[in-house]
Amino acid sequence: MAAPTADARGTPGGLKLRNGYQSLVTFEDNPTVKLFEKSVQPPGLEGGEPIPQTTMHNVTWHTQDSQDLITLTPITFTCAYDPAVYDQVLLLVNNVQVITITFSDGSTVAIYGWLKSFTPNEMSPGVQPDAVCVIVPSNFDPADQSEQGPVVVEVTGT
């Protein structure tokens, strides 16, 4: 087997995001939930921990391999909120549904997932009260239990 050889980096196509404003989170079951996004961390892609492959026949290097399955990382966002949101949040926690992240250029990524937590931050004078929300991707359609990854819709030019 041959040693790896270097490849030259090509110029990426598409358009990079220029600004994080305006990034929004939409819950299918309540698109007008009383949460007002201040910052949004979209889902990432995670391949899992390496699988050790080292045996007593290795001479110099510990070896490892990649997982076969991937997942999406949690979505987190900080938001201002209306105190009346508690009744709305009760209906979103642990409720698997389509959740859409809208990027500043209008592109979207839609996933199946649920609101894991709504955690208000400490309140103090002169500071806008806010909370941190965590969304967990389920990667499955609750209606038919099928595996479903993210659906990305790009804007023209990307």
- In terms of structural class, how would the helical and strand content be classed? mainly beta
Global outline: extended
List low-confidence stretches.
none
Q: Report mean pLDDT, rounded to a whole number.
A: 95
Main sheet makeup: 7 strands, antiparallel
> Counting H and I runs of at least 4 residues, what is the number of helices?
1
What is the count of structural domains? 1
Cα-atom Rg, whole angstroms? Answer: 20 Å
- Our estimate of the beta-strand percent is 35-45%
The CATH topology label is Pnp Oxidase, Chain A
Structure description:
With 158 residues, the protein is mainly beta. The protein has a single domain (24-47, 65-153), classed as Hcp1-like (Pnp Oxidase, Chain A), CATH 2.30.110.20. Helix content is 5%, strand content 37%. The chain has one helix and 13 strands. Strands 1, 2, 7, 8, 9, 10 and 13 form a seven-stranded antiparallel β-sheet that branches. The mean pLDDT is 95.
